[in-house]
Every structure is written in C-alpha cells, then in structure tokens.
Amino acid sequence: MAAEDDGDGTDALRIATDARDRVHFEEEALALADQVYRVARHLANSREEAEDLVQETYARAFRSWRSFQPGTNLRAWLLRILTNLNIDRGRRNQRAPQMQALEANDYFLYDKLADSGDGTTDEDRVVERLSQDDVVSALSAVPHDFRDVLVLVDLGDFSYQDAAQILDIPIGTVMSRLHRGRRILKRELAESVAEGDS
Amino acid sequence: MTDIYDEGCAHCEEMMQPYLDHVLSDAEVREAERHLQECDKCRRRYRFEESLRRYVRLAVDEQMSPALKEKLSALRIPLD
Lengths: 198, 80
What we know:
- The complex is a heterodimer.
- Chain A is mostly helical.
- Chain A contains 10 helices and no strands.
- In chain A, α2 runs parallel beside α4 (74-88) and α7 crosses α10.
- The longest helix of chain A has 27 residues, at 171-197.
- Chain B is elongated and about 70 Å long.
- Chain B has one domain.
- Chain B is mainly alpha-helical.
- The interface between A and B is large, with 45 and 34 residues.
C-alpha cells in the first residue's frame, strides 16, 4: 500500500526542495560552461557548430537534470550529452580517411624541428617554430575518432576512464586512439614545418 | 652518458606517453627516470613532448563568447 500523503504541507516541501535542487544543478552546470566550450570547440568543426552544440547540450541538460546523479562528474555528464548530439548530427557518417603508415617512432617531430631552422635544439624553444595557425589546422586535420579522444584527454584533462565513458568505447580503444591521434597530430605538424621551409 | 639510440631508448620511448599521462606504476616511473638521468637524448625528447603538449593547449585555446554565455543562462527553466 502506498504511503499516505499527510497533506499539502509535504507536497509544498517536496516542490520547494525540487526547485532548490534544480537551481543548484543549473548553477553548477553553467559554472562549467567555459570548460565545456573549450573542449566542444575542437570536437566540432567550427566555432558556429561548437556554439550550437553547447546550446543544445545545455537545453537538454536543463530538461533532463533529474537523470544526473549528484556526486558524479558533471563535466563528463555534459560532455557525454554533447558527444551524443554530435554523433546524432550525422558527423559519424564521415568515414575516417585511409591512414597512411605512421612514422616509426614518437620523436620525429622533435628531430625535424631540431634539424630545421637556426640550429637551436632547446626543447622549449623549438616548439615555437610552429605557428598558432599551424597547430590549429593540424588539430583539425586529425580524423574525428582520434581527435575526440585527443581533445578530451589532452585539452579537457579527462582521464582515460572518463573519456571511455563519454565516448562509450572501451578504455583500451581510448588508449590506442590517443596514441595514434597524438602521432597523427605530430605528423600534421611536421608537414607544416616542411611546407614552411620550402 | 649515452648518445646512441639503443634498446633502453626504445623502451624509454614506449614509456614516454604513459609517463607524461601519469599512468605508469611507481616501478616503471623509476625505470624511466633512471634511463632519463643517463640519456641526454631521451631527456631532451621527453622535455620536448611536454613543451609540445603545453604549446598545443595554448595555441588552440579559444574562449567562449559572452553572447553564448548569456544564451546558456537564458535556457534555464524558470521557476513556477
């Protein structure tokens, strides 16, 4: 038998508590908006697309706030909504391009930068040979499956585990895509150095 | 100090990404650091990788526009 309601007082209290929880949720979610946008900007293909995605994400989050479990990672929950929306938009219809063989080791970009230019091999200065535009376009050239993981872990500071949950893929896949994504990024950067030199 | 790429360097290279991601065990961290202390070449490359990661983050960082922030606030569900 259902518990008896002891009158209007209980109902009013429940409604007030509910409203307070919702306001609290909305405030917490909005406080994370900058961080969500930073990640979204590079999951999406353009600034406009990122802005649309973030708005849609927040509209959905505010509607379904009850499905968020307090005490769990709200930023990861928001990013999960965002990546699902991104997939729903049909972005995944794009096939990842055929991969070229990747360079044999992880150090070729450093070797290339150290070999080119004015002869400085200072590790902190050698990166400055890459322009900001080079880096932005190299990142956008990384195919989506790899870029998603790269952006979540390297720009969003999500753990492998969080990235696996956000993208709904096994943690082993996160690790292999991350490894590959970083190499593709470096290959793209190395190509921009080669173009700059010619 | 060695300057020849050998098996130790190959193993050190394998550990570089997980080392920088802080996912190695304590024993593996010690092993990587032991090699880095001895090998100038690997040490430079680890430092480069660290600088590169920092540099990429800064280069691609883009702040949200104030207009978007306002739009998000406007999406809040009004209290009855």
